[in-house]
Amino acid sequence: QVQLVESGGGLVQAGESLRLACVGSGTIFSINHMAWYRQAPGKEREMVATLFQGGGTYYVDSVKGRFTISRDNAKNTLFLQMNSLKPEDTAVYYCNSAGGRFQWGQGTRVTVSS
């Protein structure tokens, strides 16, 4: 069973940066389209960034130009570099395949104060 462990969240002020990491068991990152999701209080979980197996990326408009998704296959780690954070980025962030096929991890909480 694939396990995903997210880390790197925290409390920051608007305009600051965070780098999230997601460690997965096995070699899932090199053979799957992977994504970062987030769930804000009272809202449904949404996908914010996708890294396709071939290296292409997709970002939702709200994070485009500020977030960067990347991976280190050798370390089975997926990253999300988040710059110019805004209060509306406050959420619990999760990683999973682009189809959400793996068991969800605990996520990592990001809080952005204004």
Outline:
The protein is 4% helix and 48% strand. It has 114 residues and is mainly beta.
Plain-language structure description:
This protein has one helix at 28-31; strands spanning 4-7, 10-13, 18-24, 34-39, 46-51, 57-59, 67-72, 77-82, 91-97, 108-113. Strand 4 and strand 5 (46-51) form a beta hairpin. The N and C termini lie far apart (40 Å). With 114 residues, the chain is mostly beta strands. The strands form 2 sheets. Strands 2-10-9-4-5-6 form a 6-stranded mixed sheet, with no helix packed on it. It has a 4-stranded antiparallel sheet with strand order 1-3-8-7, with no helix packed on it. It is 4% helix and 48% strand. The mean pLDDT is 94.
Question: What attributes characterize this protein structure?
Answer:
114 residues; mainly beta; 6-stranded mixed β-sheet; 10 strands; 4% helix
